[in-house]
Amino acid sequence: MKRVFNFSAGLAMLPQAVLEQAQAEMLDWNGSGMSVMEMSHRGKEFMSIAAQAEADLREIMAIPANYKVLFLQGGASSQFAMIPMNLLRGKTTADYVDTGDWSAKAIKEARRFAEVNVVASTKEGNYTSVPAFETWQCSADAAYLHYTPNETIRGVEFPWVPATGDVPLVADLSSTILSRPVDVSKYALIYAGAQKNIGLAGLTLVIVREDLLGETVVGTPAMFDYKIHADNDSMYNTPPTYAWYLAGLVFQWVKQQGGLAGMAAINQRKAEKLYAAIEASGGFYNSPVAANCRSWMNVPFTLANAELDKPFLAEAAQAGLTTLKGHRSVGGMRASIYNAMPEAGVDALVSFMQDFAQKNG
Ligand code: PMP
């Protein structure tokens, strides 16, 4: 067996220890005589798996007791609609920060339900920076403010949390959740698709302050109502049980890495190594992103000579370094180095990049 270092932006690598545990438990989970996939979601075995996963997540993220944790489906993209449906709460306006392709998608979807006020946009600069908070044109009466702390496609990550005062703060943490500590109490709602740092596609995590629930826009379907999910412990319908179980294994693995502080130390080291290699290449490789907001999770870079893109990708793949092609809207390369990317993977990439630059520079 040979496993590659997969730099995909998501679906992405999973920790090997998690895959091994899932494999060991595949046919018979804990003496139940069944795989987790075959269990009733209302049986005592799965109920214990679900409760443990939530307890571990609450511990890792230090989620305050007045927040609900929801294990939903539909991907982060469904949240683009669920957020206005649930959080407008009688208001008409919502504030959005536009820092990249995912913010733009969230904005587009919110416009179905709300008057969207874009408080700041970095589109003109090709989404390579974070707009200074002092420049934001916030509305007087916004129902909430939405932003994307980490833009997966262009690798722009906020190094600070906006201080929105009484305006509920909503964050799409899809590509940065569990990578470093967050102060959940600063947010009204955090959401994330699971397929990057949590586990399997098909699960969407929502962490929401309880007092915001219960007032949806007219016509909101039951499956889009947070309160219905919260009142039913995320089992209003059949939940994505295997993805929930696997998320639980990942939460335990994160604990073993020293929790979010431990993950942050490893992630910072990995990211710094990669950015340092780009900087040290004498212009052979370049980062398009402003230095103060370079993502720890998604590292886009270009080769000064774009004719070398193809050979770079082909030789990298041969060396077991896969899925380095940048998003089709950006070009160049992108190395996604989520929690499960071992430091050895980053070391191997750095050394490959150095060799390639030497040969072709
Ligand atoms: N937000 C961000 C920041 C993302 O990276 C992605 C997926 N790459 C999405 C939203 C959409 O997620 P999903 O595919 O789970 O709907």
Automatic annotation (TrEMBL):
Binding site for L-glutamate: R42
Xref: Gene3D superfamilies: Aspartate Aminotransferase, domain 1, Type I PLP-dependent aspartate aminotransferase-like (Major domain)
Cofactor(s) in the UniProt record: pyridoxal 5'-phosphate
Enzyme Commission number, as recorded: 2.6.1.52
Binding site for pyridoxal 5'-phosphate: A76, S77, W102, T152, D172, Q195, N237, T238
Domain Aminotransferase class V: 4-349
Compartment list: Cytoplasm
Main location: cytoplasm
Alphabetical list of CDD domains matching this protein: PSAT_like (cd00611)
Residue ranges crossing the lipid bilayer per the database entry: none
GO CC, one annotated term: cytoplasm
Catalysed reactions, as listed in the record: O-phospho-L-serine + 2-oxoglutarate = 3-phosphooxypyruvate + L-glutamate; 4-(phosphooxy)-L-threonine + 2-oxoglutarate = (R)-3-hydroxy-2-oxo-4-phosphooxybutanoate + L-glutamate
Keyword terms of this UniProt record: Amino-acid biosynthesis, Aminotransferase, Cytoplasm, Pyridoxal phosphate, Pyridoxine biosynthesis, Serine biosynthesis, Transferase
Protein's pathway: Amino-acid biosynthesis; L-serine biosynthesis; L-serine from 3-phospho-D-glycerate: step 2/3; Cofactor biosynthesis; pyridoxine 5'-phosphate biosynthesis; pyridoxine 5'-phosphate from D-erythrose 4-phosphate: step 3/5
Domain of life: Bacteria
Function of the protein: Catalyzes the reversible conversion of 3-phosphohydroxypyruvate to phosphoserine and of 3-hydroxy-2-oxo-4-phosphonooxybutanoate to phosphohydroxythreonine.
NCBIfam families: PRK05355.1 (NF003764), serC_1 (TIGR01364)
Protein name, as recorded: Phosphoserine aminotransferase
Native source organism of the sequence: Candidatus Thiothrix singaporensis
Gene: serC
